[in-house]
Amino acid sequence: MRPVPVPPAPGQESVWDYPRPPRVEPSIRRVRIALGGVTFVDTTDAVRVLETSHPPAWYVSLAAVRGAELVREGRTTVCEFKGRAAYWTVVAGGAQAVAAAWGYPDPAAGYEVLADRFTVYPERMDACWIDDERVEPQPGGFYGGWVTGDVAGPFKGGPVPGGGSPLPPGSGPCVCFRPR
Question: What is the DSSP string of 61-126?
Fold first, then answer.
């Protein structure tokens, strides 16, 4: 059963209006990511991946990284749409976030703009911001969406308004998987 979408307020988008397969959109909004007290990304060169029931994932250029190291992990996962994902451990300011970043170095057709870009799980960073708004992680601890005041849910992985069970990982529109 599909959850009942929360009606978006003025200026919001409903994640239930996002497409499947996912759409990639360029953005000029300011994206910042911090770990270990170091803001290691501060850029307006970003793209959003929009997928039904998920808050956007914001991908930034690998070239935007300053004051941090992304160490490639051996693990990979597969998204039926975007292709094979690679993972990186982020090291900055004496902190380390294992497999906290991922991207698609050789993405599937239609997602080529994601090559040489990555995103992060917001809950594994000190903080992520879109413009001056601090991002909340997508609920459930499994997916990597960035929740801001711009989006209305409910979000996959989080509680369903009015009670009921969360949208569990592996159910519904997304069949992208990551290991625990």
Answer: EGGG--S-EEEEEEEEEEETTTEEEEEEEEEETTEEEEEEEEE-SSPPTT-GGGTTEEEE-GGGSS
